[in-house]
Amino acid sequence: MKNLTTGILLGLCSMASISTACAQVNAGDSVMNHARGHRFSVGGYGEVALSRNFYSDNVFRYYEPAKYKNKGSHGRFDIPHAVIYLGYDFGKGWSMGSEIEFEHGGTGSAYEREYEEGGEWEVETEKGGEVELEQFWLQKSFSRALNLRVGHIVVPVGLNNSHHEPLNFFTVYRPEGENTILPSTWHQTGISLWGRYSKFKYELQFLEGLDAMHFDRDGWIQKGSHSAFEFEPASKYAVAARIDYYAMPGFRMGISGYYGHSINNTLMNDSQEKLTGAVSIGSVDFTWNRNNWIVRGQATYGHLDNAYDVKYLSGRSTKTSPYSSSEVGKNAVAIGIEAGYDVFSQIQSLRADNQKMYLFGRYDYYNPYIRDARQAAYTYEEKNVLHFGANYYPIPQIVVKCEYSHRFFKKMYNNEPSLNIGVAYEGFFL
Question: Cis omega (within 30 of 0) on the bond before 185?
């Protein structure tokens, strides 16, 4: 697997070096990018998905794989995301942007089986759906090269967070590698300095730190941006940065990173704990969109200091606390690449009608739990995933997706195939 991972990383780097975006706009800019001259802009995106998973969903299927082999299938309907963009240009360089997201149909409470706790039932309000303010910022633009943004902002680390709208990936659901190890969409309160110069776009951010109390084995730091309280603790701080290079029309390459402390960033932070829980993340990604081809790829790697000690932080082991009690990997990795070709480009009538049909393939490798030698092994956390399918665009703002997905594990576990169908839109109405 190490050789495979190394090969993919080298492949991504070589493609990025020889290819050279229109390409995509960053998610943080999308609320204003399509205002079309209006001071007030309204837009958004939404997804509806149907899945049939041809494997058991029992929480013990990784602990007793032989028992749950060929144990049936299960299906799900979902509304992963429904988003409203609101933006306003006040004039004299001042503007406002906001993004309101409804996940899984809205808010409410629901039960879930907790994998890390031996299948115990837990009530989680957010699992019944969420309503979140993913962006809310005020901005002063001094020039094209210098803009200051303050408020709740998207943390542009990795490909998925920077370009998370449904027209920016082929799969029905967001690519599961980065979606597993990083918050998605990652949004926090802070200050951003960004701008464009020549073929480059840069962004520097100062943010509140993550909360190590929410880290877990299955998702590494993914839940660390969540707050269990009515406010977001900010006793620890972090920085994030991103640079995108637009070498030619159709090609974009980006590099991004994050660093911040995560221990003692919670309520009642009077511990004398000297551990930092420093989180370090680096990511490289690219998009190639030319000649009826779209190719996207990313490689993300992260490290957590004091990973072994996080499990034993005070407050993580009580049943009444909102925190996880599981081990947390010292490292995590997510690598993904997808490619699709517009077969309708070869049919003159469909091409003239601006219809598109991308046939695509995607590969993901990820592991949220690369453990410390002192930690228990959970080898089912390491996954390879193949996807094949089609994206049909009857008009540029709407896509119908169909995909077959197959998740591969080490030999002792059962593989997990599934069929997913979805429809999504993305656009601006004003």
Answer: yes
Strand partners, 15: none
245 neighbors 216 (Cβ within 8 angstroms): no
Please tell me the pTM assigned to this model.
0.87
The token pair at 387 is 């996807």
Q: Are 77 and 50 in contact (CB under 8 A)?
A: yes
Residue 257 and residue 245: Cα distance in Å, rounded?
15
Alpha carbons within 13 angstroms on the beta-carbon side of residue 178 total 29
The partner residues of 338 in beta bridges, in order of sequence, read: 296, 362
pLDDT in tens, 164-206: 999 999 999 999 999 999 998 899 999 999 999 999 999 999 9
Q: What is the pairing mode between strands 187-197 and 237-248?
A: unpaired
According to DSSP, the β-strands at 110-114 and 120-124 are antiparallel
Closest by CA to 176, choosing from 384, 402, 404, is 384
Query: How does pLDDT run across 128-170, given as a tens digit for each residue?
Result: 567 888 999 999 999 999 999 999 999 999 999 999 999 999 9
What CA–CA distance (Å, rounded) separates 398 from 173? Answer: 15
Note whether 328 and 213 are within 8 A (CB).
no
* Residue 271 vs residues 9, 216, 274: alpha-carbon distances, Å: 41, 21, 9
Count of CB atoms within 10 A of residue 37's CB? 6
**Of 196, 198, 286, 207, the residue nearest 250 (C-alpha):** 286
What distance in Å separates the CA atoms of residue 188 and residue 85, rounded to the nearest whole number?
Answer: 17
**Distances in whole angstroms, Cα of residue 171 to Cα of each of 47, 180, 281:** 12, 15, 24
Domains of the chain are 2-428 (2.40.160.10)
Residues forming beta bridges with residue 259, ordered by sequence position: 239, 280
Name every residue whose Cβ is closer than 8 Å to that of residue 133 and which is 6 or more positions away in sequence. Answer: 98, 99, 100, 101, 152
Q: Please, which residues have CB within 8 angstroms of residue 280's CB and are 6 or more apart in sequence?
A: 257, 258, 259, 302, 303, 304, 305
